Design the sequence.
């Protein structure tokens, strides 16, 4: 039986869908390549490594995206019903093997390449001269505690928590190490020194996120979670909470001030005098 | 054949036994479908309100008490939208709805293995839906802890926030009921598929839809039990003074809480051990439908059928080992983070196999652009777009930047939200003639497709850029963070796109109900398809085949077979009955 009818009304939808897919590819690629809404430049070398891994992933996924969507566009237009006979095939094992191995190598390879940037924020020990700052989150503020001149954090006791009397993190008044601890609502650190943050929460789960550090860490009650970084650029950066923590979630906000060594010394002196 | 006929039950006569407390899998399937349809209307209204609030947070809204939407009302919308969509739409429609209706017919069975259990599953799901809707009206309103309900926010009570009292309790009750119903449903699906296949219907002759429903049921059986246990423990923490998820030292409103020894991370592990397989519970039936529809309208066998079936199993298997990728920055050991990362990247492999085989199915075909086919093609495009962004989030280093941003929202909406919904639409347009004996209107179906396809991309593609720039999800208010202001133009664009896309769904609803009454009469097999549901009447009789139960002689996708007269060879035709080409 020969099918005479040339077109079963499939040219218009085929062309439209193919065109839409091409537009999708062009617009998406343009937006990704033109960086119209970029993340701010990283201020740590680890942040740069994260960006590098991001770029690498973008090249791989971008290529697969363009080829698949254009392949789909080509197929829907080229193989629209215009009276032809469909090509009977059940598949091809060589092709299956080929694209399975290719994706294994590509995707797993990508995963292994990214391990170092991850390790640098979590596995490696901080340097011996790192500054230690304890970050305490609660609904809906951050508090940052410095150990003070003695270099030791005082013990904490949740029974002592009392923001109204000036003890928002609950430093035990009976521990001499806590007498000189400095507690402030913003995080100030010197440039080019490693900083280790010890992240805690008093109530629900919060998160510490600074875009420029390329670093996020949940603050979980009952846990003290260390992360470290070394900022390489003086400036002020926004700290936000990214873990839904209650009705004031979007207002939970602070600043990371990266300052010169001398400004940092001044900051510590001022704060110590104020305690 | 006779054993089948004996197991078919007598036709019920009264309205209640026929349409309300029915044990017929087809009626139950439709009940699930209508439940999901009601739920999706609620879910879409909530999302439109959210999109509105993100752009005009100070607008006067006559239906909100106080005139302006508050932060907690916005978070309640976030929570309820996610919960209703994931559980009552994406789980209910593809599996409970279409799976219930078509799995028995496609394998040649007269009903599910346990018809009464099936009825019970539906009615418990219905109760769960009533409970979640009730959360809107209980004192304190709906919960604000997100669909993930992380403790301690969800674990203590109203001290942690409005909606965390009664609202959160209703949420836990609803989800626990849902889990119970889904467990029973999963058992039923597995028993039916294993025991009740027609003679000749070997596993590798099953339509890929059945593979999708089968693996989904196995995932459901293993996953819902975990969330059920988690839900009960959470309820005990809230009401019986236990501390499964609550550690010592919680101070809320200057009050030290009387809890100790629990772990907030334990809840996350339990939740995501369910929650990640849940993603595949939502999408695997859609993958099955996409394969089925692509093959039917490309008039070609599914390319690499075995690879496709194995890929479904592979995704299901790997799906249980990747839950930790939701927890890279949770405080979980960084070693586990790396392991979960590699396992997650490997899920890309069966996903890629599926994509390439879908393209292979189209290649060299004779593609007919009916509404179900357009939605299946849309499914492929959306699945590719949404799947690839997952490769960024699967890497903990990159997750340091993208976690909890709109990038994640864009990713999962494309891949498991919209793609799964496209699977549901494809299934609806495809099987409507079988379920109701009438065709849906084709021009309206196409209009619905074009608007929805363009609309969803306009909502969710720009959302990636909001995320890359650090736009944080679940923020009721962008004013506290300076850098978020720059992203508002993108939010405005997405909101307008969301309004248009939501409005376009009215075309579907109109088409659906209009076609029920006025659609053209459907024949037994309007799409010239090959599987068993097309051998019986539209709609099928009570025992599905009118006593004439089929035997199966070949695979499910025998299209354009050389030497055959027609371009499709149905599964049930004996070789001698197949007309040869002259």
Sequence:
């Amino acid at each position: 039986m020969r099918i005479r009818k040339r077109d079963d009304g499939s040219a218009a939808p085929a062309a439209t869908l193919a065109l839409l897919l091409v537009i999708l590819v062009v617009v998406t690629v343009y937006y990704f390549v033109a960086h119209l809404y970029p993340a701010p430049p990283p201020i740590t070398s680890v942040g740069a490594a994260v960006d590098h891994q991001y770029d690498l992933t973008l090249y791989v996924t971008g290529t697969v995206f363009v080829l698949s969507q254009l392949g789909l566009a080509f197929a829907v237009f080229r193989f629209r019903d215009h009276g032809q006979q469909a090509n009977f095939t059940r598949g091809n094992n060589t092709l299956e093997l080929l694209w399975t191995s290719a994706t294994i190598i590509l995707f797993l390879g990508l995963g292994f390449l990214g391990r170092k940037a991850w390790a640098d924020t979590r596995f490696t020990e901080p340097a011996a001269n790192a500054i230690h700052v304890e970050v305490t989150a609660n609904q809906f503020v951050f508090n940052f505690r410095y150990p003070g001149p003695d270099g030791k954090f005082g013990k904490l006791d949740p029974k002592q928590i009392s923001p109204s009397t000036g003890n928002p993190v609950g430093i035990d008044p009976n521990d001499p190490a806590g007498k000189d601890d400095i507690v402030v609502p913003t995080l100030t650190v010197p440039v080019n020194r490693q900083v280790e943050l010890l992240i805690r929460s008093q109530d629900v789960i919060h998160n510490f996120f600074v875009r420029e550090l390329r670093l996020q860490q949940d603050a979980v009650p009952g846990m003290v979670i260390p992360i470290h970084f070394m900022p390489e650029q003086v400036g002020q950066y926004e700290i936000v909470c990214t873990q839904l923590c209650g009705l004031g979630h979007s207002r939970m906000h602070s600043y990371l001030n990266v300052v010169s060594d001398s400004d940092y010394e001044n900051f510590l002196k001022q704060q110590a005098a104020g305690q | 054949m006779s054993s089948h006929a004996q197991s078919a039950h007598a036709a019920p006569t009264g309205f209640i036994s026929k349409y309300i407390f029915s044990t017929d899998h087809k009626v139950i399937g439709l009940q699930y479908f209508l439940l999901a349809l009601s739920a999706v209307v609620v879910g879409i209204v909530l999302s439109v309100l959210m999109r509105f609030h993100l752009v005009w947070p100070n607008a006067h809204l006559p239906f909100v008490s106080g005139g302006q939407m508050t932060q907690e009302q916005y978070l309640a919308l976030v929570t309820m939208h996610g919960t209703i969509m994931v559980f009552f739409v994406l789980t209910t429609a593809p599996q409970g709805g279409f799976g219930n209706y078509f799995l028995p017919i496609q394998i040649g069975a007269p009903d599910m293995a346990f018809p009464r259990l099936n009825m019970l599953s539906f009615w418990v799901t219905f109760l769960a839906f009533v409970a979640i809707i009730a959360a809107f009206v209980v004192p304190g309103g709906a919960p604000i802890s997100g669909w993930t309900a992380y403790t301690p926010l969800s674990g203590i009570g109203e001290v942690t926030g409005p909606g965390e009292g009664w609202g959160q309790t209703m949420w836990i009750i609803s989800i626990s009921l849902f889990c119970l119903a889904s467990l029973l449903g999963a058992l039923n699906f597995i028993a039916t598929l294993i025991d009740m296949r027609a003679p000749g219907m070997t596993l590798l002759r099953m339509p890929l839809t059945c593979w999708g429903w089968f693996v989904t049921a196995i995932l459901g059986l293993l996953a819902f039990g975990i969330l059920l246990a988690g839900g009960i423990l959470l309820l005990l923490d809230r009401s019986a003074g236990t501390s499964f998820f609550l550690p010592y030292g919680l101070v809320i409103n200057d009050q030290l809480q009387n809890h100790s020894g629990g772990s907030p991370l334990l809840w996350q592990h339990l939740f995501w051990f369910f929650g990640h397989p849940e993603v595949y519970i939502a999408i695997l039936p859609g993958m099955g439908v996409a394969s089925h529809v692509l093959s039917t309208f490309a008039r070609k066998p599914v390319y690499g059928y075995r690879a496709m079936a194995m890929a479904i199993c592979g995704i299901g298997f790997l799906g249980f080992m990747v839950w930790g990728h939701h927890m890279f920055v949770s405080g979980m050991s960084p070693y586990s983070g790396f392991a979960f990362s590699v396992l997650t990247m490997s899920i890309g492999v069966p996903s890629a196999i599926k994509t390439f085989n879908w393209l292979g199915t189209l290649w060299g075909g004779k593609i007919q652009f009916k509404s179900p086919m357009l939605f299946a093609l849309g499914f492929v495009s959306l699945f590719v777009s949404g799947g690839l962004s997952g490769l960024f989030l699967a890497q903990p280093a990159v997750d340091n930047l993208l976690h909890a941003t709109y990038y994640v929202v864009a990713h999962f909406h494309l891949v498991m939200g919209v793609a799964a919904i496209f699977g549901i639409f494809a299934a609806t347009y495809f099987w409507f003639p079988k379920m109701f004996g009438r065709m849906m209107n084709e021009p309206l179906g196409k209009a619905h497709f074009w608007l929805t396809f363009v609309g969803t991309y306009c909502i969710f593609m720009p959302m990636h850029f909001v995320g890359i720039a650090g736009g944080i999800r679940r923020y009721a208010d962008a004013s506290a963070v300076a850098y978020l202001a720059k992203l508002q133009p993108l939010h405005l664009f997405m909101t307008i796109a969301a309004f248009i896309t939501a409005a376009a769904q009215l075309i579907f609803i109109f088409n659906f109900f209009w076609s029920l009454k006025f659609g053209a009469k459907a024949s037994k097999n309007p799409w010239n398809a090959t599987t068993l549901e097309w051998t019986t009447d539209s709609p099928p009789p009570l025992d599905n085949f009118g006593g004439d139960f089929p035997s199966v002689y070949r695979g499910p996708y025998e299209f354009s077979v050389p030497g055959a007269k027609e371009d499709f060879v149905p599964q049930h035709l004996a070789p001698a009955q197949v007309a040869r080409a002259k």
